[in-house]
Amino acid sequence: MSARRVRGEWVIQPMTHRPTADSRSEPLLRSFAFAGHVTVWEPIHRHLEVGPRAFGLAPGVPVAGLVAGVHVTLAGYVERVDESVSRSIVTRLLLG
User: What structural domains does the chain harbor?
Assistant: First the structure.
């Protein structure tokens, strides 16, 4: 894995590339790691915002103690939905 800073966040990318829809396009999945303070937490929809970034929490990710204002460290993947739309899915969440 390699880590690099992109627009103020740490992005972790695997050394091996995952399959792509088109060899000239970006990978379908891209790993990320991100830290900051929670600005929005919607438990019913498992929607989380940290600063300007929005995330969805994967099923099974524990959310005990997760409230607006708490500091979190997130890890997961960015899934490209179509050519211009992607979503960030959190698979690991650390509070504090």
Answer: 2-15+27-95 (2.40.50.320)
